[in-house]
Amino acid sequence: MSLPAPLEHLIEQLRKLPGIGAKGAQRLAFHVLKTPREDAERLADAIREVKDRVTYCSVCTNITDIDPCAYCADERRDRRIICVVEEPQNVSVVERSGGFRGMYHVLMGALSPLHGIGPDDLKIRALLTRLVDGGVEEIILATNPTVDGEATAIYLARLLKPLGLRVTRIATGIPVGSDLEYADELTMGKAMEGRREVG
Amino acid sequence: MSLPAPLEHLIEQLRKLPGIGAKGAQRLAFHVLKTPREDAERLADAIREVKDRVTYCSVCTNITDIDPCAYCADERRDRRIICVVEEPQNVSVVERSGGFRGMYHVLMGALSPLHGIGPDDLKIRALLTRLVDGGVEEIILATNPTVDGEATAIYLARLLKPLGLRVTRIATGIPVGSDLEYADELTMGKAMEGRREVG
To answer: Is residue A63 part of a domain?
Structure first.
């Protein structure tokens, strides 16, 4: 004897979500069961709405509900600089940092020979298309400081430098507010390597 | 500038779920965005189905899609013993332990003066109704070994003992497969208190 079939089914669906294990899926399913009907329906509707209304910008591949996206459509942004990131969610991280007022380009992943992801699987061709008209002076490579992200940055740097662009890479180092004690040796090494003169 | 409105809305709905923080909600929302439409719809439908089809057993308050529930309807189960638990999800934990073939009763919570939950807020009256016909010989109090769960067990023991029933409480102690080193002092104390003669 087990749980009612609809509940088992919901647990099964929830388990497919990232970071949700067997226990977590069960806790969430029981929460849905207990929650007022309106709240559960709002959640179900919100899931559908995302699939119905969110799409990808035809220029930068960022997620958007209007095409081109708000960043690409904003005339006040600096079209001379393009910040290249791996995933749509990385755009808001850069944007929240506050200092950047240029354009974005989302690769939709990183090069990963191990997972069979090559240059043609990423939005690299679309990036090159954006450079055809000229006007772009700098490409900031803001892929993750991981093996795949670094490989992607190196690949793009080699591809873009010959076009006469300034190609830069975001800094790796100790996070603000963190303690050296908790830094792994690779990060610490990068922080030393990237040291700057002060005063 | 921020995320597309439908995505923001989904993140907001996901944040209401237990154990899902700001980062978790964002990760889940982006997963929904990336996942095939059929998977997202299956999840949305599963949420609705639970609200539409799962209800509470009119006898034991366990969750069920048929009333009375499969446990209460099963003629082979031992009607002389009722195991009392706090929440519907506790039923399957007891059931999975394998040894119990009696009936269940779900209180739908525990006494908690701090949160204003008194005896009338729990399914205690429904439990007493089940005892009217006679035939029940033992009540196992399987509320949680927490302050509220213990208080509920003590309250129920005082209420039920005068009815001439055997009233028992599940054992508290060191979990199987665990190490004494990781036991908190309260659990260790309970384990010592509940020691049994061996050999």
So the answer is: no
Determine, yes or no, domain membership for B84: yes
| Interchain CB contacts (distance < 8 Å): A and B | 154
Report whether the peptide linkage leading into residue A68 is cis, meaning its omega lies within 30 degrees of zero.
Answer: yes
Put simply, the answer to whether A53 touches B2 (Cβ < 8 Å) is no
Whether A54 contacts chain B with CB within 8 A: yes
Contact map slice: B 127-186 vs A, CB within 8 A: none
Same domain (yes/no): A40, A133:
no
**Do residue A99 and residue A189 come from a single domain?**
yes
Residuewise pLDDT in 10s, chain B (199 residues): 578 899 999 999 999 999 999 999 999 999 999 899 999 999 999 999 999 999 999 999 999 999 999 999 999 999 999 999 999 988 988 888 888 899 999 999 999 989 999 999 999 999 999 999 889 999 999 999 888 999 999 999 999 999 999 999 888 888 877 777 777 878 887 777 777 766 6
Phi and psi of A64, rounded to 5°? Answer: -165, 160
Nearest to A51 among B1, B4, B37 (CB): B37
Q: How many domains does chain B have?
A: 2
B156 in a domain, yes or no? yes
Give the domain range for residue B136: 76-197
Q: Are residues A11 and A94 in the same domain?
A: no
**CATH number for the domain harbouring residue B32:** 1.10.8.420
